[in-house]
Amino acid sequence: MIDNLAQGVQAFTSNVFLIDGERTVLIDAGANFDVVDAVRSRVDGLDALVLTHTHRDHVGNLEAVKERFDVDVWGCDPSIDGVDHEIDDGETVLLGDHEYVALHTPGHKDDHLCFYSEEAGVLFAGDLVFQNGSFGRTDLPEGDRETLVESIDRVLEHVDEDLTELHTGHGPSVMTNPADHVELAARMARQA
């Protein structure tokens, strides 16, 4: 089960996905709302907090989650404060009941990761791509449009028409033809 705990929150935050199953995981911690209470209302505990990247809106609640659930934080760069363990590019991680491959996808931020499960047909895209061909900002520190395009292309090498769910760092998840939204983002990022 995948549940966006930030859905309906009226604050500057990222989406926060709770994946319940064999390994109960939170993808991103969000910011500016009580994510701890939201988690506690759905599950008894967490096994890990996994980050797509470390922009403030994705990690503002990181310390509260670590303290309340006594979990380690996994991300791309353990030299960043709050990240306990490194997830290597191409590494397989268990999220819920499915194995996901971690894809290093810089361009929006150097430590950006996407997570894709071919078996589940699910992509967690962070701030790389969004609904309707939108894509991550490149005007922030570490942002680079050419690198972002390369990262989107890399994701497209993995996903195909069997992709059934696209969960993004902001906005709604895409459940209808999500691969088309990733392809459109690649085209739009090249034109912008």
Explain the overall architecture.
Helix content is 24%, strand content 22%. The chain has 192 residues and is of the alpha/beta class. It has a single domain, classed as Ribonuclease Z/Hydroxyacylglutathione hydrolase-like (Metallo-beta-lactamase, Chain A). It has a six-stranded mixed β-sheet, with helices on one face. A hairpin with an 8-residue loop joins β8 and β9 (113-117). α4 packs antiparallel against α5. Residues 13-170 form the Metallo-beta-lactamase domain. Pfam families: Lactamase_B.
Radius of gyration: 15 Å
Low-pLDDT runs of 5+ residues are: none
Order of helices and strands: EEEHEHHEEEEEEHEH
Distance between the termini: 36 Å
GO molecular function: hydrolase activity; metal ion binding
Protein name: Beta-lactamase
Cofactor: Zn(2+)
Domain Metallo-beta-lactamase: 13-170
List keywords for this structure.
hydrolase, 11 strands, RibonucZ/Hydroxyglut_hydro, 192 residues, Beta-lactamase, alpha/beta, MBL_Glyoxalase_II, Metallo-beta-lactamase, Chain A, 5 helices
Topology:
Layout: E1 2-4, E2 17-19, E3 25-27, H1 35-40, E4 48-50, H2 56-59, H3 62-69, E5 73-75, E6 85-86, E7 92-95, E8 98-104, E9 113-117, E10 122-126, H4 145-158, E11 165-168, H5 178-191
Parallel strand pairs: 3-4, 4-5, 5-6, 10-11
Antiparallel strand pairs: 1-2, 2-3, 7-8, 8-9, 9-10
